[in-house]
Q: What sequence folds into this?
């Protein structure tokens, strides 16, 4: 089997793509607004998370390089043939692509329809994808969890979250 068909080669390619993404993400955080007299800035947490991811990505990159250059034993798990990423033959890849598209739609519809409605719809779809089929559980959980989370963030933490079509609910909560 060719080295380019092994899991080690797949890990090498994935680590390169991840490193490029992490460098881009880190540079994006440099444009975050700086608040005077604040020890922790808005960019602090994302930068820490990105650095942590980058450390593990570099480890994966180095591990893959070592395995590919020094050779692997036949029983090494990294020497196995890598799985197909063809979404037509691999249902896991198709599901992952669907979730990525769902996340993009979530961000596009977030301001227009509001957090509660979009989160409820996405929750229903994801619960259905992972195999939950009991509508007596899916519907209340998908509605109550976003509502409770919105209430916690809006009232207790004073984070202004878009409500979209549920703006009257925000107005009602403000009156209480």
A:
């Amino acid at each position: 089997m060719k080295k380019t068909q092994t899991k080690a080669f797949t890990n090498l390619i994935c680590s390169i793509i991840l490193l490029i993404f992490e460098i881009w993400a880190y540079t994006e955080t440099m444009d975050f607004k700086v608040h005077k007299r604040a020890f922790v800035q808005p960019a602090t947490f994302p930068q820490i998370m990105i650095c942590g991811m980058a450390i593990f990505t570099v480890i994966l990159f180095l591990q893959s390089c070592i395995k590919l250059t020094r050779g692997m034993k036949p029983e090494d798990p990294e020497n196995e043939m890598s799985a197909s990423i063809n979404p037509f033959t691999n249902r896991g890849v198709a599901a992952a692509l669907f979730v990525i598209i769902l996340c993009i739609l979530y961000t596009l519809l977030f301001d227009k329809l509001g957090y509660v409605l979009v989160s409820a719809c996405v929750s229903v779809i994801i619960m259905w994808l992972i195999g939950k089929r009991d509508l007596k559980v899916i519907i209340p959980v998908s509605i109550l969890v976003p509502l409770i989370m919105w209430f916690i963030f809006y009232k207790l933490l004073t984070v202004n979250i878009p409500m979209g079509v549920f703006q009257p609910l925000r107005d009602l909560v403000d009156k209480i």
Remarks:
- The CA atoms of residues 26 and 49 lie 10 Å apart.
